[in-house]
Amino acid sequence: MSFDNLRKFDIFALVYEDRCSKMKTKDMLKPIWYLLCRYVFVVLSDEQFSRLLFYLSCKRFDAKPYHLNLEKPRTFNEFVNFFKLYSRPYAGTQVADKVAAREYVAQKLGSKYLINKIDIFSDVESISFDKLPNRFALKASHGSGWNIICTDKRQLNWEKEKKKLKLWLKTNLYYIGREWQYKDIPPRLLCEELLEYEIKDYKIFCVNGKPRAIQVDTNRFSNHKRDLFDLNWQHLGMLITYPNAPEPLEKPKCFLELLQLAESLSVELPFCRIDLYEYGGKIFFGEITLHPGGGYEPFGSKKEDLEFASLLGMEEIDLSLIKN
User: Fold this and answer.
1) Share above pLDDT 90 across residues of the chain, in percent, rounded to a whole number
2) Cα separation of 236 and 304, whole Å?
3) In a domain, 169, yes or no
4) 147 SS3 class
5) How far apart are CA 274 and CA 258, in angstroms?
6) Cβ contact 284:115 at 8 Å
7) What is the tens place of the pLDDT at every residue in 227-257?
8) Element (DSSP H or E) covering residue 102
């Protein structure tokens, strides 16, 4: 699919993700987007679909799109899409499954880094809302960003949230982003203790089992900010989709431990991002992401996209071994 042909899909930018500002409209358009991906865009190859998503995401975030070179990747997003197309690490499905990933982490690090589990549910009706604690997090094991964060049960519209959960259980994320690792994950709901509503999220990019850079997300549910740092905690001054925090972020006291844990979890993966939380002086596991942002979160410019891939040393990965 040529870059010029992608412009024919501009109309879909209105439906893609949550471009519309009204919450009621967002909730209506998300199922429509899924149906388009599941039954219309299936005629597109994985490569064509990846190009389309990147193009629409650039339109959504008012970034300048460019043609992805998926034969000889050079930018960060080109590398991520290359891995989506060709890399199949044996642990991919396990680490993407939020329930199974807990077992993976327990084996690598021990269970002390896991957030306390309340229960696991295979259907919504088996959830006894009255028995849940006042604060909790419900996560779809087979999704990304499919979470219900409850800070006070008295303020939660459970009947409304049940509808959302039922929709998630019927949805296969694979069709939305063509990320192979999600396709065969059994749909379940993981209920965990809620650490905090707004918490710093340390996302550590690893190449060949070695940490290379850190992304810090703050205020994810209100006024999302995102900052990138090198291993010396020097701010990189780059943008990925969201603006930088207005004030400098302090280097966490547990910084070295964060890097050590990320290295232990990434050792068997050619490329990944390890997401960890720091709360109450302790580190907790968040998730392991094989394809950050799905490979379609735009940087402030293509130059930054190139520079970030170079900083990570992504060219060190032997792509011929992955593709063959």
Assistant:
1) 81
2) 10
3) yes
4) strand
5) 9
6) yes
7) 999 999 999 999 999 999 999 999 999 999 9
8) helix 100-108
Q: What angle do CA 203, 206, 210 make, to 5 degrees?
A: 130
Cβ–Cβ contacts within 10 Å for residue 250, how many? 9
Domain count, the chain: 1
Whether 221 is in a domain gets the answer no
Q: Which pLDDT score, from 0 to 100, does residue 25 have?
A: 47
Q: Following CA atoms 76, 268, 281, 141 in sequence, which dihedral angle do they give, to the nearest 10 degrees?
A: 80
Task: Tell me how far apart the alpha carbons of residues 103 and 317 are, in angstroms, rounded to a whole number.
Answer: 27
Which pLDDT score is estimated for 221? 72
Q: Is residue 157 part of a domain?
A: yes
Residue type, 88: R
Q: What is the pLDDT of residue 176?
A: 94
pLDDT (0 to 100) of residue 222 = 77
Cα-to-chain-centroid distance, residue 110: 23
| Domain region containing 167 | 116-192
Q: Which two tokens stand for residue 122?
A: 């295979």
Cα 76 from Cα 139, distance rounded (Å): 28
Does residue 260 belong to any structural domain of this protein? no
Per-residue tokens: 94: 């396990």
The candidate with the shortest Cα–Cα distance to 224, out of 212, 211, 240, is 240
Cite the beta strand spans of 151-300 per DSSP E. 189-192, 201-207, 210-218, 225-229, 271-279, 282-289
Whether the per-residue pLDDT at 120 is higher than 80: the answer is yes
Structure tokens at 184: 């065969």
Give residue 60's pLDDT.
Answer: 87
Residue 257: which of 113, 96, 114, 107 has the closest Cα? 113
pLDDT tens sequence across 160-210: 999 999 999 999 999 999 999 999 999 999 999 999 867 888 999 999 999
CA–CA distances in Å: residue 90 to residues 46, 96, 151, 180:
20, 12, 37, 12
Helix (H, G, I), strand (E, B) or coil at 245: coil
Among residues 16, 22, 30, the alpha carbon closest in space to that of 167 is found at 30
Q: For residue 279, what are the CA distances in angstroms to 22, 200, 201?
A: 33, 8, 10
Tell me the C-alpha to C-alpha distance, in Å, between residue 164 and each of 133, 158, 292.
Answer: 20, 10, 24
